[in-house]
Amino acid sequence: MGVIDTRRSVYFVAPYKVEVRTEPLSEPKDGEVLVETLLSAISPGTEMLIYRGQFPSDTMIDASIPALVGDFQYPLKYGYSTVGRVIDFGPGVSHDWQEQLVFAFQPHETHFVAPSDRLIRIPETISADDAVFLPNVETAVNFLLDGQPLIGEKVVVFGQGIVGLLTTALLNAFPLGTLLTVDPMPNRRATSRTVGAEASFDPNSIDFFESLNRHLNINVSSYSGADLTFELSGNPRALDQAIAITGFNGRVIIGSWYGQKHTELNLGGAFHRSRIKLMSSQVSTVTPELSGHWSKTRRMDVAWKMLMQLQPSRFITHRMPVSEANEAYSLIDQHPDQVLQVVLTY
Q1: How far apart are CA 234 and CA 47, in angstroms?
Q2: pLDDT by residue (tens digit) across 80-96?
Q3: Which has the closest alpha carbon to 315: 110, 171, 139, 136?
Q4: Is domain 144-290 in CATH 3.40.50.620, yes or no?
Q5: What is the CATH number of domain 6-122+311-345?
């Protein structure tokens, strides 16, 4: 094959502006491989904060992902869900990497060079369309490890974007007492019911609290509120609602990253005596009491198994060529009611 010495990469250059730039590409060195990207998934949560300029500029992009070093400053490349095929390799790399389908925590770009030990081989039983959801499934697995749902519990999930839907689908495998979801988008509420939610509610409706509390108390009227609540909406106002519907000694797992968005919380009323536990949850670490026997490798193994069961490629609503990246982000920003998952193709 001919020498590939350039690539096209997606750059966030200003709020609401994305460019696809051509830039030099080095040859793979010792221990490195060259990957040709097949598709990459846009994160409608984190990437929308970057697209809208709502990220904290004094924060590192992601210290846990080598391909995402540096601070949040325009222009920048971002993305962490890429599937591609190895097309070349440098010295010291086994020949069995050739043509291997791989997953990488890598920004959106047509080609990239990376050490082979940073790539994850995709099992033959898993399609590229499903594999691109690996980070989201791993995140959902991590939420459940933090939340530790128990038999018979009443669970509510705020936010039914991709991560919320996958979390709901995993929770559906537990013998819960009640599984309810919350999202302002009708299409997401409908999809939520297909993956296991008993009912799904619009947080902007006038009777939201009345309707949700009615479902929460339907089985055990003497115990009011949810036992376990996940706030995955990306909307900080939802955290106040999540706290309000959580019962005595309940747990609220906060998986959203709000960036620079702020809101006031009503902590002066029932919350003071509620003994509710608020826990931030992010996939790069696991809760300390589990870290001794839940390694990154073990969590990833579970994520692959859950991915095979869930087959999340059914949530892909739009496939757009990388040359139309600006239009893809605009679509997610302007028409979230039409979108579940957008993937870029190459």
Answers
A1: 11
A2: 999 999 999 999 999 99
A3: 136
A4: no
A5: 3.90.180.10
